[in-house]
Fold:
Amino acid sequence: MLSIYDRGSDDADPFAVEEIVTGSIPTRVEVALNHTHLPKLEDHDVIRWDREEGTVAPGPAFEEIEPFIDGLEDNRKRLPDDWRSGPDG
Structure:
């Protein structure tokens, strides 16, 4: 699975939201993603989100959050289990 973070801010091509979420999505998570998280990220220009197409792409401000994401990625094993995704846990 390739995440929006893995694609980085240089890859402006949109991709399906389903590509960034592994496994089945509980309804409450899907609702929160579509009604809270994605709209907020879009409002702050972190992502470009096409609700109708179901696609996302890095936005103009994506580079601003990359250091934070780097820190999370570097400390992946220290995060709570329910925060982790992907084959490394």
